[in-house]
Write a structure and sequence with these properties.
- This is Alpha/beta fold hydrolase.
- The chain is an alpha/beta fold.
- It has one domain: Rossmann fold, CATH 3.40.50.1820.
- A hairpin with a 6-residue loop joins strand 1 and strand 2.
- Helix 2 crosses helix 3 and helix 3 crosses helix 9.
Length: about 260
């Protein structure tokens, strides 16, 4: 286990690291998840193994600290990851981000371009979205006020609605961290994550489940140089549902 102080209050991000060649690969998980759980098999897959790999838990999630004063916005998450990568001596990394982690990865590349040489976004959130009570994931969580979620039954309602697999890691999240991350993920960034992704100059790939249909704004993304790679026979957790297809597409994207 590795760690680094990433805030002025001494809060630490922690990660599992696999030894290998440079440039490093950095894996960022989605909302309520943990990178070692979601990405260990991918990082060790024969098509991806052999590279120095940092499986990072964002602040508020997994084994990282849960600072109550942190705002958990996408920019703040990205800056905290940047501090951890600098402490680890990482530069020019190939960054793989799933779902919310994909959004964080895009913001990281925009705010700290020296840290990112390639970007693989796995069904990431590109646009702001409206909270909606009863909706899955961030939209449903963000529909509660923070007090309702933390103290008024929102946490418990979420536990019964997300399913056993997601709850296995979500239950490790800080309650305020989970709520604030959801609210700010729904709020998005300005410019939007989509606009930031289009404006980056590094090689970029976006993977999503083919069963979701055509990706919104696919033409504009492709025109800006983003490689689009729909994958069959998987849901949102692409790397868990279709590990071989994911590894093949990731290897192609990362070179």
């Amino acid at each position: 286990m590795h760690d680094a102080v990433v805030t002025s209050d001494g809060d630490r991000i922690r990660w599992v690291e696999l030894a290998g060649s440079e440039p490093a690969r950095v894996y960022l998980h989605g909302l309520g998840a943990s990178s070692p759980v979601y990405f260990a098999a991918a990082a060790a897959h024969p098509l991806l193994a052999g590279r120095r790999s940092l499986l990072v838990d964002l602040l508020g999630f997994g084994v990282s600290d849960r600072p109550p004063g942190f705002d958990y916005g996408l920019e703040s998450h990205a800056d905290a990851v940047a501090a951890a990568l600098r402490a680890a001596g990482v530069a020019g990394a190939e960054v793989i981000g799933h779902s919310m982690g994909g959004s964080v990865a895009v913001v990281l590349a925009a705010r700290h371009p020296e840290l990112v040489s390639r970007l693989l976004v796995v069904d990431g959130n590109l646009d702001a979205q409206a909270p909606a009570r009863g909706a899955a994931g961030s939209r449903g969580i963000a529909a509660y006020s923070e007090d309702e979620f933390v103290h008024g039954g929102g946490w418990e309602a979420t536990a019964t609605s997300v399913g056993a697999a997601w709850w296995a890691t979500m239950r490790l999240s800080g309650r305020k961290a989970l709520h604030r991350s959801s609210v700010r993920l729904c709020r998005g960034t300005a410019p939007s994550v989509r606009e930031l992704l289009r404006g980056l100059s590094v090689p970029r790939t976006f993977i999503w489940p083919a069963s979701d249909g055509e990706l919104r704004g696919a033409g504009e993304l492709a025109a800006s140089g983003v490689r689009l790679a729909p994958l069959a026979d998987c849901g949102h957790n692409v790397m868990l549902d279709a590990p071989d297809a994911f590894a093949q597409s990731a290897a192609q994207a990362l070179g």
